[in-house]
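Field guide to reading this record: the first block holds the primary sequence, the second block holds the structure written as discrete tokens, and the final block holds curator observations. Each block starts with its own label. This record concerns VOC family protein, catalogued under organism Methylobacterium longum.

BLOCK 1 — SEQUENCE
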Amino acid sequence: MKVTVSIDVPSIDEGLTFFGDVFGFIETSRPHPGYARLTLGDETIGLLAKPAGSSPAPGSDDLRRYERHWTPVHIDFRVDDFEATLARAVAKGARPEQVHRVSGFPPVAFCSDPFGHGFCIVGTNTL
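BLOCK 2 — STRUCTURE
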């Protein structure tokens, strides 16, 4: 089995810029004009172009919004160069909400991307 996480973004181009420039993902296919598959090594994510204010499901009272919002599911990006990745993320519009650098543990940053989704950057090495 292979699992792919898909992320709603206001436009494919905005998503490509963030996830490509920060983490190095490249677009490997666009099976639909509103969906792009991005790959980095063996990892794949999908980007779904969904406009702000659109309904996430028929009959839902909720609407898509791209300011910071809470969701019980998020992605952890495990990276070799924690500091450089965090700096790139911030430069591309991410907000670090909590950053932990504790001796004996890998560093971790709880962040939100420019689309309001929570994610974590986790170093692969202990401090």
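BLOCK 3 — OBSERVATIONS
The chain has a mean pLDDT of 96.
Residues 12-23 form the longest helix (12 residues).
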